[in-house]
Structure formats: structure tokens, C-alpha cells
């Protein structure tokens, strides 16, 4: 009994330590945090508590254009392509085209994103660093 | 945007949450360089109180207001008047995000940032050559003029001493306030809009056309006033646009009723697009009546502040700044910055005087009339053994030492009142060392001047009975000490003005003020004795010009003496009155279980603790001076009565001085108002004394006060006649 | 810290439901009381604070946080949050206590709960060698000013337009120890030295 308890506790401590280590490894990395209202916050990870209330520094807010603005954008794209039709490429299909719209962004600085409103956390890393291979694999993977 | 090349984003949602959940309650994982103190300033996302981007369910981010919808003339007027209210709120210290940047037309003009005057419009897709709708042209021209003047105001303020958020918010939230668009082009648009109004005056009614035209004229004049203020030249020509604004302001306010408010053209939703580290805040609602008053004051102050450019003498200049800034309400930050610009820009005082000119002028008035020390020809002496060589050298050292401290007095007075008091804390420490250094230079110069010490006997303020030793003049350190004393008195008096003292502290603080004013009087008397001595012993005989210089200096010393006597006596009066009220338990100190009188004395006097001359009274001296245990109530009231006669006489004589003799050239009227208010406070104090005398006739002490049937109200500073003199209202209970 | 929001006159309890329990905060109570603390304080203040404002104070100075609890259901009726640290603008540096937040549920006001909490905080900080205790309060908040001044605090300076809503504040100071006469002065120009950045 005694042994099991100790080892359980030890296992828990190890898990905890690993968790803290993992969270520490993310510090100062750029995170993209999406909230329940589908905004996204991009900033450097500075701090968290047990409820995943994240502190992000130098944060920008990104927001999808509203439905209305999307409709306008789509219409504008259609018009532009219709205009093009007249001059150069006759017969091209206007329907089902895609158009690109930037998300609107603004600077917010230091923010707290409460854990209860987070739907997604993404970690940004440089491909160049990720591809370096072996040193990024854990010993068990090798 | 963030789909940058070479960067990959991995979803770590679950892993992160699982890891965080293993932390113990209250445990944090944080970057070692990041302090929790910083985190306190963070905005919490999705909290509607903090997150300006948080939308209510079903709410759209987009503005539903259509800036292209036709506008009635009355609506344009309504929008303009609302913009006037918001512009004033901005001047008063609220950020653009809560004021002008809540207007949809302004937002549409500024976003996306216009590159040309033609793009600076809330309707961007106008067909080439198509004329603007007349009402749009008017509103647009107004907005352009408004934004351009805001840019100049902001720019000017940023250039001077001010406190962000406390005095003024210069943040423009990454919106450019038309800084790239030439002022003249905007003026042309205003002109064009006015001629449009002229052309359609029959259609929209003469009255309406006029009302709108006045508003455009206001914008043109504002731009012109700003442009001219860079010149720092003749106040009369500079004041023209200010007078113009003042003139159109009355008809503007009278035609306000013609407007129809368009509240839907103002929205805090725009805050969601502003780069901001601030939580969302409501639109500031200043009524048109308040706005009217503030603008009226702004234009009056705008004309008034220009008078500072008429330099007469250094002491009048100081009195100008002192009285101008003491106004209630204090002039707006923009006006205060204009004053700073006039005073200090490029280290040229008032646009044409060197700092040396002003300091030498001041030294000549205060301590050194007709002195060889201030003779500019000393600078030309090249022979090192000539005493004039040493004089020039030492005086230059002194000027270098004192110039900054001297200018800082003016600069300090340009701040908001709370800041003035705190800045003066620093200033007196600084003047303490200026005085020490001046003393060393005085000692060197008295040798060069071959000065003979004189036996100087104070006649009026007798300090000690001992026969005094021969003394030297020590002009430079006397000059420094005089400023230090004045600053110390201002600190105490600003304490009254800012309601820093509790009622039971007033007896002590007026006692201390009296102590400082008395010390100043003693110093002035000493300076005067040496000035008279120098005048009497002047060889060769004085020329007329020199006589005039001496007369001017003695006039100053007289005014200074009157002021210190008045201050000393009146402070003594109030100290006695409050002591009586404490004895009668008509003012009762709070219980204060965690404090002692000695500890509080220490906090209260902290700014003065390191000053060696005059040394801070010990706690025992202070307590004795304040409680006057040897005096009965009757004796206290009698001594107050005596002092009040003397204070009244001093204020009376002061008030009769000419502006030359009072050293209030170009500020005399304002200064006189202040002096008269002091006089009224004295009358109020004498009423308080007689009420107390009547009630205590036959003698009462201590606890009996409660039975006297008196009621005491210590009024708020702004409720009395003068903020520096808190006179209790004592009435009989019905 | 922040200016209190104008509140309608509360329906007060004529009598308390019994002797209140006053307890010191500790991390193990976080789940039970932190949400209530936030709710109680944010109700009283015009200026909102993120969860990390509370973390900042409680993480390091939880022992300087006291709570008044209803004896019947142990619900939170009052709280005081403080910090205590060396103050650098003094030389040699002094230990300065700071009362950051004080709130009492409106129904329970008028029974001296706020005063009791402040006294506990002062005692705790004095026990930890505080030289002085400071705080800011809105100039129009007469009840708060009276409470502190009755205990011995003095107004040391006025802070112009200190709060986001544009109102001014007073800095109140309680000196607990006689100063070394040679010590430097606190005539610091920065007001926000104590404030936690967002006021």
C-alpha cells in the first residue's frame, strides 16, 4: 500500500513537473489564441494560471470581416472580374470565384485571455527550426 | 497577415489545458522577466468592461450609419455643435477615443488615411468633377478645419511639459489628424464652403446659412490663431483671430437652437477599430452650456495670455504667470502650453529676451540696483587682476548656477495645481543648494567689491535683543533665500487650496505659514537696510537714472514687505481662531488610534525637513506655537483682533499701489481681484472673531464650548473668497 | 485604487446576522473565494480589473488579504487586499504598505466592517515592520476618506485627474514609525508609483 501510494504521488509529481516544464518551454513564444467569438489574438506568451488564463504581450487582435463586409468584398470582386471579362478574357466564369479579404487587425498590447473563452491555442514555430530534426525528437522517438 | 512564410502553427489546445490544469491553486507559470506588476495593466478579453472588441450577441461590428445619406442643414448644425462639445471634452483631458473619434464622419474622413485634400472626405467614391452636395461640403470643411487644428494643438502640447492622461491625452490611436495635408488647402475648403452657404442662403434660410458660416469662420480663425502663435511677436496682431473667435462665439451659441441633434452619427463602436490599450469608455457628454462656458474662457484666456509678451520687468512677469495660473478654473492645457512656449521656446524668453537679461533685471530689482556686479562692461575686461574681471567671472558662474532654478519656477507654475505643489517640493530643495552656492560667491565678491560690513539692526521684526555683529550684504544668497521662502509659502498655501489639510490641522498650518511669512519679512527688511546704505554711500553721486533704479528696487521691497506682513498677520489671525475652535471643541480631531501628533507632524512637514534656512520648527515649538497654552481664549481672540487690523491695513495699502509699484504690469486687474478677495476674507475673519468673542464673553474654556450654541463650518476652498484663506463660518445655532 | 462607481443607496441590514468571521486569505481558498472577491470589488469600482490584478496581489501578499464572512453561510461580505514592499524612493529604503482594494457588500455597510478590515491589515503590516501605509482614494469619496482619517491617515497630496473617469484622488499616508531625520524625502513626482498601472 505504502509503496503504491508513494509511487502514485511520485507519478503525479513527475506529471506535474513535466507539465510545468512544457508550459515553461512555451514562454515568450508567439501563440495564436482563438476565442469563442472567433476572434484571434496573436502575441507572446508570458504567463498562465491553472485555469489557462493566458497573458499575452504585444498582442494584435484579428477579426474576420463581418458578413456584410464579406458580401461587399465578394460583390466588388465579382464586379472587378466582370470588368475584366469585357476587356480581355471573354467567356470566363464569374460564378464560384474565390476572393481574398484580409482579417482586420489592431494592436492591443498586453492582454489576458481567460481560459473559459479559449477555443483554440496554436503555437507558432519557424519551419527552419522544426526541420532540423533529431534534436527536436525525444529520446524515445529515436 | 499571419500566414507568413516559414512559420508553422501547431494546435496545442488540449495539451496546454491539460498541463495548466496540473498547477496548484494560485500557482503560475511565467516568464522570469515578466513581473505580475506589469500584468495588472492587461486588458481582459471578452470582459465587456475591458475588451472594446467584445460584441454583444447579434451585434455587428460595422457601423450601420450611412455617411452618404442626405443631411438637412439643421442636422449639419446639430452634428457640428456636438463636435464642439466633444472637442472641448478633449481639451479638458478626455481621450480622442471618447470624444471626436466617436463621430462617424470623422472616422470616414480619416480611414483609410487620405493622401490628398480631395481624398479627405467621408464620401470617397465621388465621380470626378461631380460637385459635392452643399451640406456635405459644409460638414466636410468643418471637420477638416477641426482635425487640422486638433493636430496642431496636440503637436504643441507634446512639445511642452504636460502629463499624459492627467492633463491631456495626446494619443491619436494611429489615426493621422491630417498632418500631411496643408493648412492652406484646408483654409481654401473652408472658404469654398462659406461661399456655397452664401449662394444657397435663400434656400436654407438666411439665419441658417449665417449660423453655419459662423461655425466655419470659427475654424478658420482657430487655424489662424495657431499659426500666429509661433511668431511670439506683437500681442495685438496675434490676438486678432482670438478676438474673431470671441466675436463669433456669441452668435454660435445663440444659433445652437437651430440644430437637430444626430446622436446616431456618434458611436463608441469606432473604439473597436482603434489601436488601444485602454478599456472601452463611454462618449463624454458635455452639455452645450458647459461647452459654451469653456470655449468662452478659452478665447478670453487666448487673448489674455498674449499679454505676457509685453515684457515690462521680471517681477511683473512672475506675477503674470502666478495670477494667470491661479485662475479658477485654471486655463486649459492648450493655453498653459502656449504660455510655456511664449516663455521658454528655444531658451529665448518671450521671443526676444536672453535668460541673462531677465535674471539681471531681477537681481537689479530685488537686491542689486545700480550694482557694479551687473555692469555689462565687466565682460570686456581682460586683465585678470582687475576686480571687474573677477566680478564678471563670478557673476557668470552664479547665473549658470541659478538660471535653471529660476526658470523652473515659471515652468512649475504652468502645471496643473496639484503638480505645482509637488514640483515646488523639489524646487525648494534645489533653491536650498542655490542659496549655499550663492553664499560662497557672495563671500568672494564682497572682497572684490571691498565691501565694509555694516551694523544692521532689525527695527520692525525684532528677532533677538543682542547687539548684532557687523554684517555683509550677501545679495545673491539673499535673492535665493527670498525665492525659497516664497516657494515654501506657496506650498503651504496650495495645501489650503487643494484641501490637503483636515480642519484640525489648520491652526498649525496657518501658524507655520505665518512663521515663513515673518521670516520673509525679516529678510526683506535686511535687504532694504543694505540697499538704503548703498544708496546713501554711493560715490560718485547718483545720476537720475540711478536714482530711478534705486526707487524701483525700494518700491519692490515695499510691496514685498507689505505682502509678507499681510500674510504673516492674517495667518496668525486664522491660527488663533482655529486654536480657539479646537479649545472649545467646536473642531474635534478624529480619534486616530494608529497615529500620534508627532508622527503626523513629520509627514506633514516632510518637504521642509531638509531645508536648513529657515530650519523647520521642532515639534515642541510647533505645538507650543499652535496651542498657545499660556493664552486664555480671551487673550487669543484679542491677539487675533490686533493682528487683523494690521493685516487689513497691509492688504489695503497693497491694493492701492499702482501697477508699476505693485510690479503687476499687464496683470494688475487680475492681481487686484486676488488682493481684494484676500481683503474680503479678512472681513469674514473679523466677523468670526466677533461671533466668538460675543459667545465667550464672561469666559469659557475647554468642554464648555459645546454649550455655547455655536455651529462651525470649515468651508471648501472654492466656497470662500480666496482659496488660500480658509475662514471658518461660525453661526449661532437656532 | 479605482474610483468607486456611483451606487444607489443600498438596502442595508439593520442588524448583522451574528458575529462575522474574519479570516486571512490563503491559496487553498482560491476556488472558494476568488470569484466572490472579484465580484464584490468589481461591483464597487468604476474601473475594471483583470484576474491578474488579483493574482498580482494575492500571489505575493495573500497573507495581507482579509475577508469578512457571513457566519451563517460563510459567504463573502467584505475584503481588503494589500501589499508590502521596500519603497525605493526613500534612502535608506523604507517598508511601505499599500492598501489596494477595500470593499464591503452594500447590504452589510454601516457596521464597521470596513474599519475592522483596515485595522487588521494595518496590524498585519505593522507586524511586518511597515514604516508607513499609503493608499489613494477618490476626492469625492467622503466615507472612505473619513474612515481612513479617523484611523490616523493624512492627505499627503492631491492627484489631478487620477482615474479614468476624470476625477482626482488624494494620497493618504499613515506613518507608523518615527523617521530617521537624515533619511531621504518622499517627494517623488510619480503618482503612479503605487497604482497598479491601470487606474
TrEMBL record, chain A:
Which SUPFAM superfamilies has this protein been placed in?
Sm-like ribonucleoproteins (SSF50182)
Q: Which GO terms describe its cellular component?
A: NatC complex
- The leader peptide range reads none
The chain positions of domain Sm read 21-123
Q: What top-level branch of life does the organism fall under?
A: Eukaryota
Q: Which InterPro entries match?
A: LSM_dom_sf (IPR010920), LSMD1_Sm (IPR034110), Sm_dom_euk/arc (IPR001163), snRNP_SmB/NAA38-like (IPR050914)
Q: Which Gene3D superfamilies match?
A: 2.30.30.100
UniProt-listed CDD domains: LSMD1
Report the protein name in the record: LSM domain-containing protein
Automatic annotation (TrEMBL), chain B:
Keyword Cytoplasm on this protein?
A: yes
Kindly indicate whether the keyword Cytoplasm belongs to this entry. yes
Its subcellular locations are: Cytoplasm
> What region holds the NAA35-like N-terminal domain?
25-186
- Tell me the ranges covered by the NAA35-like TPR repeats domain, including all copies: 305-695
Q: Which UniProt keywords apply?
A: Cytoplasm
Family, per the entry?
A: Belongs to the MAK10 family.
Record's protein name: Mak10 subunit, NatC N-terminal acetyltransferase-domain-containing protein
Q: Which organism is it from?
A: Cercophora scortea
Automatic annotation (TrEMBL), chain C:
Q: Is Transferase among this UniProt entry's keywords?
A: yes
Tell me which UniProt keywords the record has, alphabetically: Acyltransferase, Transferase
What does the entry list under GO cellular component?
Answer: NatC complex
Concerning Gene3D superfamilies, the annotation shows: 3.40.630.30
UniProt domain N-acetyltransferase: residue ranges: 20-177
Which PROSITE patterns does the UniProt record give? Answer: GNAT (PS51186)
Cite the CDD domains for this sequence: NAT_SF (cd04301)
Alphabetically, the GO molecular function entries are: protein-N-terminal amino-acid acetyltransferase activity
What the entry lists under Pfam families is as follows:
Acetyltransf_1 (PF00583)
Which family, according to the similarity comment?
Belongs to the acetyltransferase family. MAK3 subfamily.
Write down the PANTHER family for this protein, in alphabetical order. Answer: N-ALPHA-ACETYLTRANSFERASE 30 (PTHR45896:SF1)
Q: What is this protein called?
A: N-terminal acetyltransferase C complex catalytic subunit MAK3
From the broadest rank down, the organism's phylogenetic lineage runs: Eukaryota, Fungi, Dikarya, Ascomycota, Pezizomycotina
Amino acid at each position: 500500500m505504502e509503496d503504491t501510494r508513494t509511487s502514485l504521488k511520485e507519478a503525479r509529481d513527475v506529471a506535474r513537473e513535466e507539465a510545468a516544464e512544457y508550459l515553461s518551454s512555451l514562454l515568450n513564444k508567439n501563440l495564436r489564441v482563438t476565442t469563442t467569438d472567433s476572434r484571434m489574438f496573436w502575441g507572446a506568451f508570458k504567463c498562465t494560471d491553472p485555469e489557462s488564463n493566458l497573458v499575452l504581450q504585444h498582442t494584435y487582435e484579428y477579426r474576420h470581416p463581418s458578413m456584410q463586409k464579406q458580401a461587399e468584398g465578394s460583390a466588388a470582386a465579382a464586379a472587378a472580374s466582370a470588368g475584366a471579362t469585357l476587356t480581355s478574357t471573354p467567356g470566363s466564369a464569374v460564378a464560384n470565384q474565390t476572393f481574398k479579404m484580409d482579417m482586420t487587425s489592431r494592436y492591443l498590447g498586453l492582454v489576458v485571455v481567460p481560459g473559459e473563452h479559449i477555443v483554440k491555442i496554436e503555437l507558432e514555430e519557424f519551419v527552419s527550426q522544426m526541420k532540423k530534426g533529431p534534436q527536436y525528437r525525444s529520446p524515445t522517438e529515436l | 497577415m499571419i500566414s507568413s512564410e516559414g512559420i508553422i502553427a501547431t494546435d496545442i489546445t488540449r495539451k496546454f489545458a491539460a498541463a495548466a490544469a496540473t498547477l496548484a491553486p494560485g500557482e503560475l507559470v511565467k516568464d522570469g522577466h515578466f513581473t505580475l506588476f506589469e500584468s495588472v495593466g492587461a486588458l481582459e478579453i471578452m470582459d465587456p468592461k475591458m475588451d472594446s472588441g467584445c460584441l454583444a450577441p447579434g451585434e455587428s461590428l460595422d457601423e450601420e450609419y450611412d455617411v452618404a445619406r442626405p443631411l438637412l442643414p439643421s442636422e449639419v448644425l446639430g452634428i457640428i455643435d456636438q463636435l464642439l462639445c466633444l472637442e472641448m471634452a478633449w481639451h479638458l483631458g478626455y481621450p480622442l477615443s471618447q470624444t471626436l473619434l466617436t463621430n462617424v464622419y470623422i472616422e470616414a474622413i480619416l480611414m483609410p488615411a487620405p493622401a490628398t485634400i480631395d481624398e479627405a472626405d467621408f464620401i470617397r467614391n465621388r465621380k470626378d468633377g461631380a460637385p459635392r452636395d452643399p451640406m456635405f461640403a459644409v460638414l466636410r470643411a468643418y471637420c477638416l478645419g477641426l482635425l487640422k487644428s486638433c493636430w496642431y494643438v496636440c503637436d504643441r502640447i507634446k512639445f511642452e511639459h504636460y502629463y499624459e492622461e492627467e492633463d491631456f491625452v495626446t494619443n491619436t490611436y494611429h489615426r493621422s489628424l491630417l498632418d500631411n495635408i496643408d493648412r492652406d488647402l484646408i483654409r481654401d475648403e473652408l472658404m469654398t464652403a462659406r461661399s456655397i452657404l452664401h449662394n444657397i442662403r435663400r434656400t436654407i434660410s438666411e439665419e441658417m446659412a449665417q449660423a453655419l458660416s459662423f461655425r466655419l469662420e470659427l475654424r478658420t480663425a482657430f487655424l489662424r490663431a495657431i499659426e500666429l502663435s509661433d511668431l511670439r511677436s506683437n500681442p495685438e496682431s496675434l490676438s486678432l483671430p482670438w478676438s474673431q473667435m470671441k466675436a463669433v462665439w456669441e452668435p454660435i451659441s445663440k444659433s445652437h437652437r437651430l440644430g437637430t441633434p444626430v446622436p446616431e452619427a456618434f458611436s463608441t463602436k469606432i473604439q473597436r477599430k482603434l489601436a488601444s490599450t485602454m478599456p472601452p469608455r463611454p462618449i463624454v457628454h458635455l452639455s452645450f452650456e458647459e461647452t459654451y462656458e469653456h470655449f468662452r474662457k478659452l478665447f478670453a484666456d487666448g487673448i489674455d495670455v498674449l499679454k505676457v509678451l509685453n515684457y515690462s520687468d521680471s517681477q511683473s512677469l512672475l506675477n503674470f504667470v502666478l495670477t494667470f495660473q491661479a485662475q479658477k478654473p485654471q486655463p486649459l492645457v492648450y493655453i498653459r502650453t502656449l504660455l510655456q512656449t511664449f516663455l521658454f521656446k528655444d531658451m529665448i524668453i518671450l521671443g526676444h529676451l536672453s535668460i541673462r537679461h531677465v535674471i539681471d533685471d531681477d537681481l537689479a530689482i530685488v537686491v542689486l540696483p545700480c550694482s557694479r556686479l551687473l555692469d555689462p562692461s565687466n565682460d570686456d575686461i581682460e586683465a585678470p587682476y582687475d576686480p571687474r574681471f573677477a566680478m564678471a567671472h563670478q557673476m557668470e558662474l552664479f547665473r549658470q548656477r541659478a538660471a535653471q532654478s529660476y526658470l523652473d519656477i515659471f515652468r512649475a507654475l504652468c502645471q496643473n495645481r496639484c503638480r505645482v505643489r509637488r514640483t515646488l517640493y523639489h524646487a525648494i530643495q534645489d533653491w536650498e543648494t542655490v542659496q549655499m552656492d550663492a553664499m560662497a560667491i557672495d563671500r568672494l565678491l564682497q572682497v572684490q567689491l571691498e565691501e565694509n560690513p555694516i551694523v544692521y539692526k532689525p527695527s520692525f521684526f525684532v528677532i533677538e535683543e543682542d547687539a548684532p555683529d557687523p554684517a555683509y550684504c550677501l545679495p545673491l544668497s539673499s535673492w535665493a533665500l527670498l525665492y525659497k521662502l516664497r516657494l515654501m509659502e506657496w506650498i503651504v498655501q496650495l495645501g489650503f487650496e487643494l484641501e490637503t489639510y483636515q480642519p484640525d490641522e489648520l491652526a498649525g498650518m496657518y501658524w507655520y505659514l505665518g512663521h515663513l511669512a515673518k521670516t520673509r519679512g525679516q529678510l526683506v527688511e535686511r535687504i532694504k537696510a543694505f540697499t538704503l546704505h548703498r544708496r546713501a554711500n554711493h560715490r560718485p553721486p547718483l545720476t537720475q537714472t540711478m536714482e530711478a533704479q534705486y526707487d524701483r528696487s525700494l518700491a519692490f521691497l515695499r510691496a514685498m514687505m507689505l505682502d509678507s506682513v499681510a500674510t504673516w498677520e492674517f495667518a496668525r489671525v486664522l491660527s488663533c481662531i482655529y486654536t480657539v475652535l479646537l479649545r472649545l471643541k467646536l473642531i474635534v480631531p478624529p480619534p486616530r488610534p494608529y497615529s500620534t501628533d508627532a508622527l503626523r507632524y513629520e509627514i506633514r512637514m516632510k518637504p521642509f525637513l531638509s531645508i536648513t534656512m529657515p530650519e523647520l520648527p521642532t515639534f515642541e515649538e510647533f505645538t507650543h506655537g499652535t496651542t498657545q497654552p499660556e493664552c486664555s481664549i480671551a487673550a487669543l481672540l484679542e491677539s487675533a483682533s490686533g493682528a487683523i487690523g494690521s493685516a487689513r491695513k497691509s492688504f489695503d495699502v497693497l491694493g492701492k499701489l499702482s501697477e508699476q509699484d505693485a510690479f503687476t504690469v499687464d496683470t494688475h486687474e487680475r492681481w487686484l481681484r486676488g488682493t481684494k478677495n484676500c481683503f474680503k476674507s479678512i472681513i469674514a475673519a473679523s466677523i468670526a472673531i466677533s461671533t466668538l468673542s460675543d459667545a465667550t464673553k464672561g469666559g469659557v474654556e475647554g468642554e464648555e464650548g459645546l454649550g455655547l450654541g455655536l455651529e462651525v463650518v470649515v468651508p471648501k476652498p472654492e466656497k470662500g473668497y480666496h482659496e488660500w484663506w480658509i475662514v471658518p463660518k461660525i453661526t449661532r445655532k437656532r | 485604487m479605482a474610483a468607486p462607481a456611483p451606487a444607489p443607496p443600498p438596502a442595508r441590514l439593520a442588524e448583522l446576522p451574528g458575529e462575522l468571521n474574519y479570516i486571512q486569505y490563503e491559496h487553498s481558498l482560491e476556488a472558494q473565494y476568488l470569484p466572490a472577491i472579484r465580484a464584490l470589488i468589481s461591483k464597487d469600482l468604476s474601473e475594471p480589473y483583470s484576474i491578474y490584478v488579483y493574482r498580482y496581489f494575492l500571489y505575493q501578499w495573500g497573507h495581507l488579504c482579509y475577508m469578512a464572512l457571513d457566519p451563517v453561510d460563510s459567504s463573502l461580505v467584505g475584503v481588503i487586499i494589500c501589499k508590502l514592499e521596500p519603497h525605493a524612493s526613500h534612502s535608506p529604503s523604507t517598508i511601505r504598505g499599500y492598501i489596494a482594494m477595500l470593499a464591503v457588500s452594500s447590504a452589510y455597510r454601516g457596521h464597521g466592517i470596513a474599519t475592522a478590515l483596515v485595522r487588521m491589515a494595518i496590524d498585519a503590516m505593522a507586524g511586518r515592520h511597515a514604516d508607513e501605509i499609503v493608499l489613494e482614494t477618490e476626492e469625492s469619496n467622503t466615507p472612505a476618506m473619513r474612515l481612513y482619517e479617523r484611523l490616523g491617515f493624512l492627505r499627503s497630496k492631491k492627484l489631478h485627474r487620477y482615474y479614468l473617469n476624470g476625477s482626482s484622488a488624494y494620497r493618504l499616508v499613515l506613518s507608523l514609525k518615527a523617521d530617521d531625520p537624515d533619511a531621504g524625502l518622499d517627494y517623488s513626482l510619480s503618482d503612479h508609483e503605487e497604482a497598479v498601472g491601470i487606474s
